[in-house]
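hiii so um. not sure if this is the right channel but i have a protein structure encoded as tokens and i wanna go backwards to a sequence. like what aa goes where. can anyone help
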């Protein structure tokens, strides 16, 4: 069995849709997201991060969580659950994502 075959079986290529970006891990302790209207950003393991809306408005929903959150400029949300989180821009939005203060 070739190595290429093994890797392709273990990690199949799955192209992302143009309107969706994967956020598996943040490269540093703080990141800024600029999303255009209706864009969706997915965060695979958000526990311990805080999302702050700098400008615009966004809709936030998390797998297994009964309520959704609407963020306006100046508001924030701290993620305590590890399940996948989706952020959709209701209009052009700038978000800051950082490790939550302990």
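sure thing!! here u go:
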């Amino acid at each position: 069995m070739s190595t290429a075959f093994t890797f392709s079986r273990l990690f199949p290529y799955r192209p992302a849709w143009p309107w969706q970006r994967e956020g598996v891990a943040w490269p540093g302790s703080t990141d800024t997201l600029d999303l255009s209207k209706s864009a969706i950003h997915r965060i695979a393991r958000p526990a311990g991060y805080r999302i702050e809306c700098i400008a615009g408005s966004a809709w936030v929903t998390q797998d297994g969580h009964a309520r959704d959150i609407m963020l306006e400029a100046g508001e924030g949300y701290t993620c305590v659950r590890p399940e996948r989180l989706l952020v959709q821009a209701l209009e052009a939005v700038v978000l800051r994502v950082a490790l939550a203060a302990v």
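oh and Helices lie at 3-10.
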